[in-house]
Amino acid sequence: MRRPNERLLTVALVACAAALTITGCRSASGKPGPGSEVMRPDQVTDFATLYGQNCAACHGASGKNGAAIALANPVYLAIAGVANIQRITANGVTGTAMPPFSKAAGGMLTDNQIVILATGMESSWGNPSAVAGQTSPAFASSGPGNSEKGAKEFAISCARCHGIDASGRPASNGVVTGSLIDPAYLAMISDQGLRSIVIAGQTEQGAHDWRSYTSGPIAHPLTDEDVADIVAWLTSHRIATPGQPY
Ligand code: HEC
Ligand code: HEC
Q1: Beta carbon of 131 within 6 Å of any ligand 1 atom
Q2: Cα separation of 40 and 94, whole Å?
Q3: How far apart are CA 107 and CA 119, in angstroms?
Q4: Could you tell me which residues come within 8 angstroms of residue 60 by beta carbon, excluding any fewer than 6 positions away?
Q5: Which of 158, 186, 223 has most ligand 2 atoms within 8 Å of its beta carbon, as the pocket-test mutant?
């Protein structure tokens, strides 16, 4: 035999649940007025809409000229490939402003939407023959790189625009660049982020890629190892407490 107060409590709970259900049903069955249908975020499958809503703010309205690396760059797209782009979009890049977008990683996009973004970039902005017949450095580095060798290669390939110490200062050729060794800059970009820009970056001034840094008698495309070495030298300027006075 239940005690009365216990039964009352049960009834109250059941009534409550029922009331909630009914309210829920009523609002769900309410007919929307014309033009008031809103697509659930999960159901957006249009590449341009997904890109505009989620990526344009950082990577630029049409995939370039944003604060972060240009994605509408056929050379970058050919070297990175759909699988890497999908993985980075899903998981983000720890320690940088690139957020994870997959639901599994706490983001707002479905796996299908991430596939649409990665394949949409390739089909809208890519060109399968962008690096055809050429041996580009691999997207990911195969080793840690040698900082000393990196400083030497930087002097040959990069110093004329970025300054011999990478501080951006000399710029005798009129190109204006920021410092690549500012601890605050290095704190916001990953090693892969630097590597991607060196291999296949696109700046507002044009292509910035492994094939084109040197010309004339010293002309040589950067090898996989050269890029790893340069990144090792740049990142050797990282400090433990960026932002602190030093
Ligand atoms: C809040 C700014 C921000 C937003 C929004 C953002 N990104 Fe990024 N993204 C970045 C930054 C910063 C990096 C460079 C991270 C690093 O240093 O490796 C990056 C890197 C990437 C890379 C790797 C580039 C490389 O170095 O090879 C891909 C691919 C990418 N983003 C795709 C996307 C896509 C797709 C979206 C939209 C779904 C998106 N991003 C939205 C800031 C952003
Ligand atoms: C012909 C001139 C030129 C040469 C050579 C050159 N760069 Fe750049 N680089 C630029 C310009 C212009 C920008 C865009 C302005 C900026 O970000 O400072 C840039 C941007 C960059 C960035 C991105 C900076 C950012 O804002 O995130 C990196 C990293 C970089 N360069 C590294 C290198 C390395 C490493 C080399 C040599 C392998 C190199 N560059 C050679 C002109 C050059």
Answers
A1: no
A2: 28
A3: 19
A4: 66, 70, 71, 72
A5: 158
Q: How far is CA 182 from the centre of its chain?
A: 21
Mean pLDDT lowest for which of 61-65, 79-83, 89-93, 160-164?
160-164
Alpha carbon of residue 142 to chain centroid: 20
Q: Supply the residue whose CA is at minimum distance from atom 26 of ligand 1.
A: 193
Q: Which residues of 64-93 are buried (b: 16+ CB within 10 A; e: fewer)?
A: bebebbbbbbbbbbbbbebeebbebbbbbe
Q: How many residues does the chain have?
A: 246
- Which atom of ligand 1 lies closest to the CA of 80? 27
* Confidence bin at 30 (pLDDT 50/70/90): low
Whether 88 is in the pocket of ligand 1, judged by its Cβ within 6 Å, is: yes
Are 215 and 153 spatial neighbours (Cβ–Cβ below 8 Å)?
A: no
Are residues 92 and 192 in contact, defined by beta-carbon separation less than 8 angstroms?
no
Residue 50 in contact with residue 117, Cβ under 8 Å? yes
